[in-house]
Write a structure and sequence with these properties.
The chain has 10 helices and 11 strands. It is of the alpha+beta class and 291 residues long. An 8-stranded antiparallel β-sheet has the order 4-9-11-10-6-7-5-8.
Length: 291
């Protein structure tokens, strides 16, 4: 490659810069195309790219971050932060890696769960859960509904139940444990919807609350009919995905053995203070209405 006339002599051709950065010219062209490392100069006539020697550190950093499977937008944030504040850049990297470790931990648990199913040890897993039934009376509930994927679900449950419990003060107060109804599957491929519900004392006040809210947050008030529920009680640690899947399947297996069919969508009933509970504390009932 021949340098173009008029180019700053301090600039390096892409070949020379690639050697200094210990990267390939192909990688540098990719980083340019992705908006992660633009050349210092591009000759209009020839299209040749030229770089400054001090860009080598950024190029190496981009390459290392890509080895962490970091999304391109996050890489851009980190490398831009390095130039402004190294401490901020380190914090961004730490936050990203904490998320990676949490995801891997969840995948490790899911793999163990699937190994149990595939090896025919499902009955052992289900045996850890005690299934009972309870009759609950008719309830007036204020609700908030949302289509959500599994990774967004925990945050939405906490936020929506918090909003509904605050609103319950206008509706005579909370009279029973809040619960979440799954009207369809919630996973990384299916977005429900899910419905957060808080039972309240005053039906007329609840209807007025819903009227004032209109369609904000997809809120509503409705009557939850009297039902018989089949349930198993789980700890805070077991609420995490995929542990909770085994609890739902344990209730379904018990229902099949008892000759019972579901008479409504499954749900989770949160009867304890989530923030105050420890990992081993019981906080939730996994529930199927039964006919």
């Amino acid at each position: 490659m021949t340098e173009d006339a008029g180019v700053d002599e301090e600039l390096l051709t892409i070949g020379a810069f690639a050697a200094r950065a210990r990267l390939s010219a192909k990688a540098l062209r990719l980083y340019d195309r992705l908006g992660l490392l633009a050349p210092a100069h591009v000759d209009v006539a020839s299209g040749y790219r030229y770089y400054r020697a001090e860009q080598a550190e950024r190029a190496r950093l981009v390459a290392l971050l890509r080895q962490l499977d970091m999304p391109l937008a996050r890489i851009a944030e980190v490398v831009d932060a390095v130039e402004a504040d190294g401490t901020e850049a380190a914090g961004l990297l730490a936050a990203y890696w904490a998320g990676v470790e949490a995801r891997v931990a969840g995948q490790r648990t899911l793999a163990a769960y699937l190994r149990g199913r595939l090896s025919g040890r499902s009955s052992e897993m289900y045996g850890r859960f005690v299934v009972e039934t309870v009759d609950v009376p008719e309830q007036v509930v204020i609700t908030e509904t949302r289509h959500t994927l599994a990774d967004e679900l925990p945050a939405w449950i906490g936020a929506s139940l918090g909003r509904l419990e605050a609103a319950a003060r206008e509706c005579g107060g909370v009279v029973a444990a809040p619960f979440v109804v799954y009207h369809s599957e919630v996973s990384m491929e299916s977005d429900g919807p899910a419905e957060s519900c808080v039972p309240v004392a005053d039906a007329a006040a609840a209807r007025e609350w819903a009227r004032r809210r209109g369609r904000a947050w997809e809120t509503a008030v409705r009557v939850e009919p009297a039902r018989r529920l089949a349930f198993t009680r789980i700890t805070k640690a077991q609420v995490a995905h995929p542990q909770i899947l085994a609890a739902f399947e344990a209730v379904e297996e018990w229902m099949a053995r008892e000759g019972l069919a579901a008479s409504g969508p499954c749900r989770e009933v949160y009867f304890a203070d989530w923030n105050a509970a420890g990992p081993g504390d019981a906080v939730c009932d996994v529930v199927f209405p039964v006919g």
